[in-house]
Each structure stands twice: as C-alpha cells, then as structure tokens.
Design goal:
The chain is an alpha+beta fold. It has two domains: 1-35, no CATH class; 45-193, no CATH class. The protein is 39% helix and 11% strand. The chain has helices at residues 53-65, 77-93, 101-114, 140-155, 172-187; strands at residues 5-11, 24-29, 68-71, 190-193. The strands form two sheets. Strands 1-2 form a two-stranded antiparallel sheet. The protein is globular and about 45 Å long.
Length: 195
C-alpha cells in the first residue's frame, strides 16, 4: 500500500483546473511520482537573516501558528525543521560520519573564504552524509519540537564542540554562525500563510 504525504500547497493559476481559480490546492504525492525541485534554481524563497537562536525560535513559532505553510523545496515543513535540528544536535553530540578527505580539504578552504556567508541552496547529501537527511514524512509539530529542543540548548549556553565532518574543528561561535546560516537556508523555503 502506498502511503500518501502532503508535499506542498500552491495557488491555482488563473485559467486552470481544479474548480475554483485562485484557490489553494493541497498536492498529495507518494514521493515516487513527483518530479524533484532543483532547489538551487528556486527563486520563491523568503529573505531571512538570523542573529541568534531566539530569531530562529520566533520564525519557528510563525511557522507553527500558521494555518498552512507552503513549501518551495522538496521537503515537507516537518522534514525541513528536522534537518536543521539534526545538524545542531550533531554539533553537540557528535557526527556519525566523516566526509571524504577531498571534501575535508575543500571544506577548510571554504571555511577561510566563505564562512559566515549565506549557504547556497541545492547541495546534495550523498553517502555517509545522508545521516543528515530528515526523517521521511516527519510531521510539522514533531519537526518543530526537535528543532526547539536543539535551539533551547543553544540559548542555554551549552557549547557546540564536536568537529564538523567537512570543516574540522570549529569554535562555538563559528558553529553558531553556521547553524544560523543553515536555518536561514532551509526556513527560507517555508512560507507561513496568513488565515
């Protein structure tokens, strides 16, 4: 039996079915038949800049309180939130993988040149790094709770000390910057809709 999950909400363009033009339509897919979005080319993203875990928590509350949330990427709302939570958790508790040596060498160059800048969309997680992928089909509330727990650790002053599988050893401040840029990237694909 095929399990159906909500993938996204989108407005119906004028002149197209179904029934009411301009109405919001919920798209259900199995994940097997929908064509993935090339996230590097998505222009329908929110502009976000987080200065602290409190900023991320505020946006998380907007997402949770919205009657619906439209996604512009490939993941559900819950999956996006779960993924952001996983990176924070691994920075505290340790990563279950190491990147290949070529990626680690490149990571050290990127750390010097581009660290702290916005993270580009469209990066693919392959091999051992798939441990960072979200739990498939996780719901919005569960994903939000997982993220809230990790953000509370940040707010509470607990230090992120685990080495990055790509960048190597980072200070807590560098980890915080990376986590905020990472949250900006993934939450930018989520559009909380007004009632």
């Amino acid at each position: 039996m095929m399990r159906l999950v909500i993938r996204s909400w989108y407005p119906v363009a004028a002149g197209r079915s179904p029934a009411v033009r301009g109405a919001a339509v919920c798209v259900y897919t199995s994940g097997m038949t929908s064509k993935p979005v090339h996230t590097a080319k998505v222009t329908d993203r929110r502009e976000l800049h987080f200065e602290s875990a409190d900023d991320v928590l505020s946006d998380l509350e907007r997402i949770l309180l919205a009657p619906s949330v439209r996604t512009a990427g490939n993941w559900t709302v819950g999956e996006s939130l779960d993924h952001v939570a996983k990176l924070i958790r691994f920075a505290y508790d340790g990563f279950p993988f190491k990147a290949p040596i070529a990626i680690r060498l490149l990571g050290r160059i990127v750390r010097v040149v581009a660290f702290g800048k916005p993270i580009p969309a469209g990066l693919k997680l392959r091999g051992a790094s798939e441990a960072l992928l979200p739990e498939k089909g996780v719901d919005r509330v569960t994903g939000a709770e997982r993220l809230r727990i990790q953000l509370q650790r940040m707010r509470g002053g607990e230090k992120m000390t685990q080495p990055s599988p790509v960048f190597g050893r980072l200070t807590h401040e560098q980890w915080t910057t990376l986590q905020l840029r990472h949250a900006e990237l993934h939450l930018s694909f989520l559009h909380p809709e007004e009632a």
